[in-house]
Amino acid sequence: MTLPPHAPDAPVQPIFELIEVEQVFEVPKPGRPLFSRETVGLRALDGVRLSIRKGTSLAIVGESGSGKSTLLRVLLGLDKPSGGRALYRGKPIGEARARGTGFARDVAMVYQDARGSLDPRMTIGAIIAEPLRHFNIVPREGEAARIAQLLDRVGLPADAAERFPSGLSGGQVRRVAIARALASEPSVLVADEAVSGLDVSTQAQLLTLLQSLQRDMGLTLAFITHDLGVASYLCEEIAIMYLGRIVETGPTDAVLKAPVHPYSAALRAAAPQFFEPLSEPLPGEIPSPLDLPKGCRFSTRCPVAQSDCQSKDPQLGKLGSGRAVACIHPITQA
Ligand SMILES: Nc1ncnc2c1ncn2[C@@H]1O[C@H](COP(=O)(O)OP(=O)(O)OP(=O)(O)O)[C@@H](O)[C@H]1O
C-alpha cells in the first residue's frame, strides 16, 4: 500500500518513508553573462510524500524530467535530499547506508543500463560472486552452487557462469543483473526501467520473472517506468509524478481504470494499448522546472483547469481506498 505518511490506516512501519522531500540542484542561471557564476535552484523534487510498505510493489511513473531518477537516488541513499526526511525502516537513509546497518545488502538495484553495469572483462560467475563474497553470503566452497542456483532462479543455464556479458543477448544481460541483485538476499529491489528497450516478448518474460520473484520471495519492489502497461502488469501500487511532485497515488488498477488527476488521465489516454510506451506525447510543453507555473504546476497543460488552479498549489490529499491526489478539481467518475 502506498499512502501519505501518518495516515490512520498505516499501522505498520514502512520500509521507506519520504516526508516532504525536496531535492534542489544549483544550476547555471539561464542567460547569465559569460564568466558569471550565478546559479539558480532547480526543484527536481518538491514536497514528495510517499511510503513503501514491506512486500508491496510500487511503480513510479511520469514523463521524462518528472523526477523519477532523482527520487530513486534518494531512496538508494546515493543523494541526500536538500529538504525533508527520507527514512529507511524509520532511520534517515543516509545514516542507514553509511553505518553499515545492512542497508546495502538489503536494498538491491537493477540498473537501466544493465550491460553497462556489468564489467565486460568478468565472467557472469565472477560478477555474481562479487556480492556473495562482499556480504559473506556463502562459504567459498558453496559459491559455485549458489551461483548456479541464482542463474536458475532467473532462467539462465548454469553454464552461463562461464560466459562474458558480450556473449549474452539483451534479455539475458537483464537476467544476470537481476541475479546479481538477488545475490545479497535483499528484501527490497529497486529497478530503473529494467525492461525498457527490449522486444515485447522478452519484456513480457522479464516481467513474469520479476513478478514471480516478488511474490515468491516477498520482495518489496520499487520500479521506475515510463510505461503504464509495465506498471499495471507488475505493480500493485502506482505513484504518478509530474515536475517533482507525486500527483496521484494508489492501487494501480484503480488509478489506471479511473484516474482522478487530469495528468494521470492524460497519461492513460496517451497509452491506450497497455504494453506500449506512451503512444503520443501529451499535448502542451512541460514547463521548465526553473520557471514553475504558479498554483498547480499542471495547470498550463490541464484540459480541465479552472481559474483558481493558477493560484492554489494543491497538495497530495487522501481520497480513501488507499488513494491520494493533488488536485483541487479532481475528475469525478460517473
Ligand atoms: N545532478 C543534477 N543536476 C542538475 N539538475 C538535475 C540533476 N539531476 C536531475 N536534474 C534535473 O532534475 C529534473 C528531474 O530529473 P530526473 O532525471 O530525476 O527525471 P526523470 O523523471 O528520471 O527523467 P528521465 O525519465 O528522462 O530519466 C530534470 O529537470 C533534470 O534536468
UniProtKB/TrEMBL annotation:
Ranges for domain ABC transporter: 19-268
Primary site of residence: membrane
Gene3D superfamilies per the UniProt record, alphabetical: P-loop containing nucleotide triphosphate hydrolases (3.40.50.300)
UniProt cross-references to CDD domains, sorted A to Z: ABC_NikE_OppD_transporters
Pfam short name (any one): ABC_tran
Membrane topology: Peripheral membrane protein
Entry's Gene Ontology cellular component terms: plasma membrane
Claim: Transport is one of the keywords in the record: yes
One of the GO biological process terms: peptide transport
Keyword Cell inner membrane set for record: no
Keywords: ATP-binding, Nucleotide-binding, Transport
Places the protein is found: Cell inner membrane
Source species, domain of life: Bacteria
Gene Ontology terms for molecular function: ATP binding; ATP hydrolysis activity
Similarity remark: Belongs to the ABC transporter superfamily.
NCBIfam families per the UniProt record, alphabetical: oligo_HPY (TIGR01727)
Protein name listed in UniProt: ABC transporter ATP-binding protein
Organism: Antarcticimicrobium sediminis
